[in-house]
Amino acid sequence: xxxxxxxxxxxxxxxxxxxxxxxxxxxxxxxxxxxxxxxxxxxxxxxxxxxxxxxxxxxxxxxxxxxxxxxxxxxxxxxxxxxxxxxxxxxxxxxxxxxxxxxxxxxxxxxxxxxxxxxxxxxxxxxxxxxxxxxxxxxxxxxxxxxxxxxxxxxxxxxxxxxxxxxxxxxxxxxxxxxxxxxxxxxxxxxxxxxxxxxxxxxxxxxxxxxxxxxxxxxxxxxxxxxxxxxxxxxxxxxxxxxxxxxxxxxxxxxxxxxxxxxxxxxxxxxxxxxxxxxxxxxxxxxxxxxxxxxxxxxxxxxxxxxxxxxxxxxxxxxxxxxx
Length: 324
What we know:
Blueprint (H helix, E strand, L loop, with lengths): L36 E2 L10 H9 L22 E2 L1 H4 E2 L4 E2 L3 E7 L20 E7 L3 E2 L3 H9 L9 E6 L6 H14 L11 E3 L17 H19 L4 E4 L22 E4 L3 H6 L10 E12 L6 E7 L2 H7 L4
Parallel strand pairs: 1-7, 2-12, 5-6, 6-8, 8-9, 9-10, 10-11, 11-12
Antiparallel strand pairs: 3-4, 5-13, 6-7, 12-13
Helix pairs in contact: 4-5
Pfam family, one: Glyco_hydro_25
Family: Belongs to the glycosyl hydrolase 25 family.
Protein name: Glycoside hydrolase
């Protein structure tokens, strides 16, 4: 099978569970829901990751790939659950050892039917919780609580992620993230590891606020955030990023070894890499999952979704994400 040669390496995440009666990360906090400000629904502050990849990968990105419109993509541009999660268009047989999931945020339509996800072959869900030290995703509670209350017959693993802001230090951002999850019940046994999202920090006037910060500062603050999350949750966090973001203007690839202890959730939407199912990964790191689209569909559901894939068996998935 073509998967045997893929650049992804299955990550075994060292996950520590503490035998306590309350959820992991549930240290005392005086913060209330009103301590955070809801992120705006105005998407004018954002740029699509597809647009970012097209801009920053330059020659490596080819939005028209594959060259022939008759040539199918292994992961099609218009990926649709459940069909494309079950069937390999290239090899023309049911998929094996591929587990697909989505991530959601305040941009996601509130009508998303969580009870319908498992039957549509959505096998995991990550939910945006916070950004910076004082911004929350207003739909985190709806999706996090809703996923937690699903009947076991339709339940899929949930996880929370934090968008790392360039405007405040990493440790207080980690504390804000864990405090907000704790406010909604905390990370429980069976939940996915927490995630830190390190990428373009966009505003209307600035395509990336990380530019102007030194590589030493970005590395130090990202590590401070990751380490504090691990200290408080007893879970090794995952680092979400895109190789095309790494540069002499942010962090040069020569510094990637600083993150060797953290599994990587790589984002890469390049159609040619979807053709071969071989994303552009960070060197000398372990890639856990690959986000390949921000426009996947779910039959019978509204809107579109960021979508990722894990390569491995269900047992591999549970071991990698500490679900056993």
